[in-house]
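Reviewers of the previous submission asked for a worked example of the structure-prediction workflow described in the proposal, so we include one complete record here. The input consisted solely of the amino acid sequence. No template or homolog information was supplied to the procedure at any stage.
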Amino acid sequence: MRRVIRVVAACIALSSIAAEAAQAPVPTRRAGASGGDYPSRPIRMIVPFAPGASNDILARMGAQHLQQTWGQPVVVDNRAGAEGIIGTDTAVKARPDGYTLVIISSAFTMNPAVMKLPYDPPKALDFVLKIGKSFLILVVGPSMPQVNSVKDLLAAAKAKPGQVVLSSSGGFLHFATALFMSQSKEQFNLVLYKGGYPALMDIMAGQTHAGFQASPAALPHMKSGKLRGIAVGSLARSEMLPELPTLDESGFKGYECANWYAIATAAHTPRPIVTQLHQELVRYFTSPETAKLLAGMGIVLEIKTTEEMRRIIPQEIAKWTKVAIEAGMPRNLQ
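From that input alone, the workflow returned the following structure tokens.
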């Protein structure tokens, strides 16, 4: 896990250097339809959430590789807010030339289930690739030393209705938490943050009691002893944490939430550029060293193309719309 931390730190350092280079004047000419001169200037990688979360880690890994391979700065631009919509919309409205990329996750298909968006998800982006997915972990912090299982957490909530505080953020973690709360029948106090990482920090600091986190963000802190996992959100137990029961085993029948990650660019980007990005990023993420690193973070490789993602997105939206309705989540579609 120290290897993961070193890689993330190196990615952040390289992004800082790249940011300075990105301030230079940018040519206004468009990339040719063939993409033959791509990339000829800095590339921006937008992360629609706060630094430190799993999508931020993956974006920095990919950005570092592209920068080292192509010799052009790749600037990681965290644009958190509105449950990932602000950063995503920035990418949607960028010129379709491959110089603005965005990393998206399950929130991309969850948001349209509960709110009106400034873009049409199935048509707004050209998907460079789907990288893979991570499993979900229900964790507790130092403020609840007596809680070592889901049963213990439910008992604490029942003993003090509304006083057990769950940290969450918009999008994926909000859906996962809402589904848990609706099935638990207990009264929790839900606090929403701008990103998964700030929510995680407050659990570890004892400001809140528990919450869901994607495996890449939670695992390092579980290994250090700052967090305790009590269940996973997949239907089968994780090979990495076989001692942790699933929520399905813990009485939440059929509970399943996984967070997937993909890199995309604005719709109508020249196909040769999308193909060039796809091939290079697939080569990197499927390399033995990177695949091993991802496995250590709890991420399962699941490479998909633009065409495959266009078929998957509407199915995902339908799935999470059903969850939002059944969980009684507030919906503002006007």
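The radius of gyration is 20 Å. We consider this example representative of the routine output the project will generate in years two and three.
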